[in-house]
User: What shape does this take?
Amino acid sequence: MSTILSIDGLRKTFSQGFIPRRKEILKGISFAVSEGEIFGYLGPNGSGKTTTIKCVLGLIFPDAGRIELCGRPHLDPRSKEKVGFLPENPYFYDYLTAREFLDFYGQLFRLAPDVRRERIPALLKLVDMERAADLSLRKFSRGMLQRIGLAQALINEPSLVVLDEPLGGLDPIGRKEIRDIILRLRSEGKTVVLSSHILQDIEMICDRVAILVDGRILSQGRLTDLVSEKILFTEIVLSGVGDRELAALGEPLSAQAGRTLLKVYDEARIQAVLDLVRDRKGNVHSLLPRTQTLEDLFVGMVRPR
Ligand SMILES: Nc1ncnc2c1ncn2[C@@H]1O[C@H](COP(=O)(O)OP(=O)(O)OP(=O)(O)O)[C@@H](O)[C@H]1O
Ligand SMILES: [Mg+2]
Assistant: This one.
């Protein structure tokens, strides 16, 4: 599969503070995104996600490193002809309607009037905003604005769509809707790069991820490779056995309504727990093996060392 975006050794320093001091925000970042995948750029607040994205789009200039977009150096204007972008905090002109807003961006891309007339209704349909097409943006909710922002990012029929925190500030239904649109974009053959600090969303839709912590990429790859399938422990909810007896086999946790949550770290001990419960005429209410999640990996990396 061919590479649509590659970043190699990217460094960026900013001057910060009242008495300006230079602080290195990106400390040599490298990763590549293949055509047709959904790539998640994951990292805590302030780790440098937006800074990376701004460098990619040529909005700010890196101190060092190479970036290639759609097979060209990123400062070549032709490299961005097939790129769409949704910024972290998009600015919406309040008094335009959704349709006028998209038309304005269509004009910026020099799309002919008949192309705009055809494409704008199709985009409004894609983001399910047809009914709000002629409503002014100041009447839009955050989720509606996010959807119109996404439609704007698609106005030039991009092959690569870069979305900076597209799910930020949305409720669970809004998040699901945006996730579904992103999945649809992939099924149409587009490549999507999205940044987020919301792990579950990344886990649900991304093919590959890079995890950025304090300006460095600590891990990258396919989710299935990063997150091990190994069972970390098994959670057993049971009743009828005293905590003291259970403590020999695992870690008894919360006891609610006579039930105990027991964490068993050694698989060989699960059978012993079940035997004990049967022997004491107790009950097993649930038994859940816990494999590692992206969250475990992320929290382990982000925790101050
Ligand atoms: N123009 C600037 N001048 C000085 N410092 C900056 C500038 N832009 C960003 N920074 C700093 O760079 C660091 C990384 O910021 P960035 O916005 O890239 O983080 P982020 O990963 O996108 O975070 P978030 O999840 O909050 O969006 C922060 O410490 C920020 O204060
Ligand atoms: Mg950001």
Q: What stands out?
A: The chain has a mean pLDDT of 90. The domain at 3-226 is CATH 3.40.50.300 (Rossmann fold).
